[in-house]
Amino acid sequence: MRKPLISGNWKMHHNHFEAIQTIQRLAYALSSSDYESVDVSVHAPFTDLRSLQTVIEVDQIPINLGAQHSHWEEKGAFTGEVSPEMLAKLNVSFVIVGHSERRHIFGESDEDVNKKVRAVIAKEMTPILCVGETSEERESGRTLEIVERQLKEGLKEVKASEVASMVIAYEPVWAIGTGKNATPEDAQEVCKGIRIKVADLYKTASDDVRIQYGGSVKGVNAPDLMKQADIDGLLVGGASLDPDEFSRIIKYRLLD
Ligand code: PGA
Predict the structure, then answer these.
(1) What's the 2 CA to ligand 1 centre distance in angstroms?
(2) How far is the CA of 10 from the centre of ligand 1 (A)?
(3) Which conformational region is residue 213 in: left (phi greater than 0), alpha (psi within -120 to 50 degrees), or beta?
(4) I want to staple 35 with a disulfide (CB 3.0 to 4.6 A). Which of 62, 84, 238, 256 is the partner?
(5) Given this model, what pLDDT does residue 96 score?
(6) How many Å apart are CA 15 and CA 41, to the nearest integer?
(7) The whole model's pTM is what?
(8) Active site residue 71
(9) Which residues is 39 bridged to in the sheet?
(10) Whose CA is nearest to atom 2 of ligand 1?
(11) What letter does residue 50 receive in the DSSP assignment?
């Protein structure tokens, strides 16, 4: 059985004061039965990580600390970058890699994404590898082709046992921050395609790898998305900024 993982991607929102307040309100809204049913991670800006680590550890909050990206090198002349080593030192457990905003706004290539995936694994953190098609790619019927290429390139030289404990997030670019989410059936179809591709590449990993859906997830659409056989979690942007709404999503099984 794959335990669902619900992740909040705060993007460039919440300074460290707001981050502390948000995590405390989230922790207040969640109970031990929520954490038993679902793993939760929060992906904050770099400037918030130390403050969040302190609150999470001192108050023993079972929320996993996450980062939104990382460089692949351990150290060096890379102005503005942060290394996997630095994140691991803060007890970061999950790192988003290859988010569509990184790919499209900051020009990250599949090759960069692959280097990051491997660097994150090397520091014993879990990458959340994001894949997804643009609206033009979907309209021209190329969704699976694009997603499969991103997967194959992103997972190059990663061992089957490492893929098995990774997370893959299917995030159609046209659904991110637009209010237009994929229907649960469409999302399921692509997530199933991702699992089949993983089985193709790494026979043994496909039953264990967790696949998230992301793109305009809210409390109202979370239960139907989570009912799909190949959706093992959600990557939530806008709706994760509000601890009340994010906790509703985490409690999706009670909303049904
Ligand atoms: P959204 O973002 O939920 O605001 O659409 C999702 C994401 O970018 O991970």
Answers:
(1) 22
(2) 9
(3) beta
(4) 62
(5) 98
(6) 18
(7) 0.97
(8) no
(9) 5
(10) 237
(11) H
Residue with structure tokens 């809204």? 29
* DSSP bridge partners of 211: 168
Residue 75's CB is within 10 A of a number of other CB atoms, namely 10
Measured from the CA of 96, which atom of ligand 1 is nearest? 9
Q: How far apart are CA 67 and CA 128, in angstroms?
A: 10
Q: State residue 167 phi and psi, 5-degree precision.
A: -125, 135
Query: Using a CB cutoff of 8 Å and minimum separation of 24, what contacts does 134-141 make?
Result: 134/173, 134/174, 135/173, 135/174, 138/172, 138/174
Q: Which residues are bridge partners to 95 per DSSP?
A: 67, 127
- pLDDT at residue number 110: 98
Name the catalytic one among 43, 99, 133, 162: 99
pLDDT on residue 255 = 76
What is the model's pLDDT at position 204? Answer: 86
Q: Do 117 and 127 form a contact (C-beta atoms < 8 A)?
A: yes
Query: Are the beta carbons of 36 and 66 closer than 8 angstroms?
Result: no
Is there a catalytic annotation at residue 85? no
- What is the per-residue pLDDT for 54? 98
- CA–CA separation, 189 vs 246, rounded Å? 25
Mean pLDDT of successive 10-residue stretches along the chain, which has 256 residues: 97 98 98 97 98 98 98 97 98 98 97 98 98 95 97 97 97 90 94 97 93 96 97 98 98 87
